[in-house]
């Protein structure tokens, strides 16, 4: 699966904080993501969701329940201008509906909905389509952080009536009680928590009409810029994906994007990436697909990915995955 969406470094920073003084250093947690510790100090840095998920996968490999802890650390202040817009909203319902307008700024991998069943409201996160092995982690991270946002907005804990998760019951399910003090259900159709519908009309203690209007307008402008950059990155990835057997090079790709190579390089650097990194990422994803299908010999896969020699492909695949292509296929 190709991850062309952009996101902030907030989740990555939280991962590093969660493991501080607990064994693996920052380099181990950032391994394979293309993110350096220096990147974390850059204002308004953007990374791809693939980079974020690689860091999260490194974290989950060390502590499977870490999504719950990260979610509890994801306060409304982590969302920048969107956080200010939410805090200054008139009611909890206004704030949640505003958040759902800007999933790119919220950084969610799910479709968020408010589902009113007549007696209570479910805040639902569904349609997850990223790495399957991280589905439980992302559901825990998402729902816990949404609960924290509600608590922050209200200035008090939001009483929950029930919560449900799409994944099977984990062996650490007792830890869910720290965030979800309510009946729990697993193997559900979506991930959601329920609360009394009257809470949607609850006035927020930090509501301010003037601030809210100003912050909402800034969110609208930022979202336009943000989604534009997502579309730009998506176009680059698609161009490279269509030419894996004969990659155009930085100069050739720049011509296809109707910009100079210097401009293309600068934009990619701003996203914490490079031409070679994107090309390797796409080659790796396609290689895994072709190896899993078990129909083409390895030398043919090497050709389709633009390698002039099978040995070069083997070396590259071992650098990407840590194992040889034949081992991965087996």
TrEMBL record:
The keyword Disulfide bond does not apply. GO terms for cellular component: cytosol. Keywords: DNA-binding, Transcription, Transcription regulation. One of its GO terms (molecular function) is DNA-binding transcription factor activity. PROSITE patterns: HTH_ARAC_FAMILY_2 (PS01124). SUPFAM superfamilies: Homeodomain-like. Residues 234-330 form the HTH araC/xylS-type domain. It comes from the Bacteria. This is Ornithine utilization regulator.
């Amino acid at each position: 699966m190709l991850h062309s969406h952009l996101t902030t470094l907030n989740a990555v920073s939280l991962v590093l904080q969660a493991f501080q003084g607990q064994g693996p250093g920052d380099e181990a947690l950032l391994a394979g993501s293309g993110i350096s510790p220096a990147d974390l100090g850059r204002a308004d840095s953007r990374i791809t969701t693939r980079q974020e998920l690689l860091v999260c996968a490194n974290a989950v490999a060390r502590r499977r329940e870490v999504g719950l802890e990260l979610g509890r650390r994801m306060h409304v202040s982590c969302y920048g201008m969107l956080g200010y817009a939410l805090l200054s909203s008139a009611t909890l319902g206004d704030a949640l509906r505003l958040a759902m307008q800007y999933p790119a700024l919220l950084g969610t991998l799910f479709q968020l909905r408010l589902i009113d069943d007549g007696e209570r409201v479910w805040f639902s996160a569904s349609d997850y389509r990223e790495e399957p092995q991280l589905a439980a982690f992302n559901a825990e991270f998402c729902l816990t952080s949404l609960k924290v946002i509600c608590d922050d907005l209200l200035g008090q804990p939001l009483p929950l009536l029930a919560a449900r998760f799409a994944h099977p019951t984990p062996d650490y399910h007792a830890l869910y009680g720290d965030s979800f003090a309510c009946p729990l259900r697993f193997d559900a159709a979506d991930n959601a928590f329920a609360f009394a519908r009257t809470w949607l009309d609850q006035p927020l203690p930090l509501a301010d009409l003037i601030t809210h209007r100003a912050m909402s307008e800034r969110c609208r402008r930022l979202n336009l810029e943000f989604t534009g950059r997502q579309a730009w990155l998506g176009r680059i990835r698609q161009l490279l994906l269509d030419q894996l057997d004969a990659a155009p090079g930085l100069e050739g790709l720049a011509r296809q994007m109707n910009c100079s190579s210097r401009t293309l390089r600068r934009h990619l650097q701003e996203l914490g990436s490079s031409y070679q990194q994107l090309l390797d990422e796409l080659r790796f994803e396609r290689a895994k697909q072709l190896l899993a299908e078990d129909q083409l010999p390895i030398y043919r896969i090497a050709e389709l990915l633009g390698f002039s020699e099978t040995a070069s492909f083997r070396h590259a695949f071992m650098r990407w995955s840590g194992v040889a292509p034949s081992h991965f296929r087996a």
